[in-house]
Every structure is written in C-alpha cells, then in structure tokens.
Amino acid sequence: QGRLHGGVVGTLMTNFGIEQAFREAGIDFARAKVGDRYVMEQLFERDWYIGGEGSGHIVCRDVTTTGDGIVSALQVLSALAEAGCAHLSDMLQGVHKTPQTLINVRMKEKRDVTKVPEVAQAVAEAEGVLGDQGRVLIRLSGTEPVVRVMVEGTDKALVDALAQQIAEVVRGLEQG
C-alpha cells in the first residue's frame, strides 16, 4: 500500500468491484475519463503514482511518463515479490468484480443523449434500483457514433435488464 503514494486512478469504465476492493483496503480511488491522458491528468492533480484502464494499460508515474506494458509487468512482479506471493491470484483475494453489462447503441450521428429527459429519467430509475450496490454510465464513444450504456451491480440478471431498458430508451431517440 505504501508504494501507491496516495491512491489509484481508474477510468469511468473500471469495474465497480475494483473500486470497492480498494476502498475496503483503505486505498483512495478516483475515476478519470477514458484514456491515458485523463488518467495522467488525475495522477498529476492528486500527486499519485499508479493509474490505468481495464484494458491493462497501466501508468506507473514514479517509473515512467506513459503506460508501458513491460514496465507494468515488472511492477506487478515487484509487488508480488514484495508481498511474498507466488501467484497474482494470491494478491487478488477479496477482489470480486461485479457483473457489468455494456451495450453499444449505434446512432446516425454523435449526440449527447445524457441531456435528453427520457434518458436522464431511465438512468435515474436504474440508479434508484441499484442504490449503492452498482452504477450506471452513459457515454459517447470518442471514435464512432455510438452511445455506450453500461450498468454494473451485484445481481447479473438485474444489471442485464436495466442496461437493456436504458438502451431501448436511447434506441428510441433514433426512431422518434
């Protein structure tokens, strides 16, 4: 924990279970927009050293200035040795990723649907159902005309159903 120097930065897409595991371990966790540059911004702003994305792209700011797979692998091996663990799974005891459903809704053109009242209502209703046991994320793709609808929570069937409901509302915008 000392090597973390404050906390860890993840992205908006980082699994909710990862955030919970850090918090339970007493490690601060912050979310950045998706992309290394936003992770780096948060790291510098907070003067923290480690951040990354679910893809495995990890930034170790005390060692390098950008994400580097070899540096990340060496840092993981170093942490394993320091903790006296033979396997990464030993260090991940107690980390339980929550079910996550991601639906990409193709749009005719890029459009910020988060400001549309019907979408905002569908999100608020889903968040009300999930309470503090999950989260909802609606975001535009940075590279294509797609709205990403993501729902996470402890119950897979509920997460799937809520994601489908919100996606249907977003799809309805294209038809209406």
Enumerate how many helices there are, as a single number. 6
Please bin the fraction of helical residues.
40-55%
Principal-axis shape = globular
Structural class: alpha/beta
Strand content: 15-25%
Q: Main sheet, how many strands, which sense, barrel?
A: 4 strands, mixed
Count of β-strands? 7
Unreliable spans are none
What is the end-to-end distance? 51 Å
Q: SSE string, helix = H, strand = E?
A: EHEHEEHHEHEEH
Q: Round the Cα radius of gyration to an integer and report it.
A: 18 Å
Strand arrangement, largest sheet? 2-1-3-4
Q: Oligomeric form of this entry?
A: single chain
**Mean pLDDT value:** 88
Pick out its properties.
176 residues; alpha/beta; 4-stranded mixed β-sheet; 3-stranded antiparallel β-sheet; 6 helices; 7 strands; 22% strand
Question: Can you describe this structure?
Answer:
The chain has a 4-stranded mixed sheet. It has a 3-stranded antiparallel sheet with strand order 5-7-6, covered by helices on one side. It is an alpha/beta fold and 176 residues long. It is built from 6 helices and 7 strands; from the N terminus they run βαβαββααβαββα. Helix 5 runs antiparallel to helix 6. The chain is globular, with a radius of gyration of 18 Å.
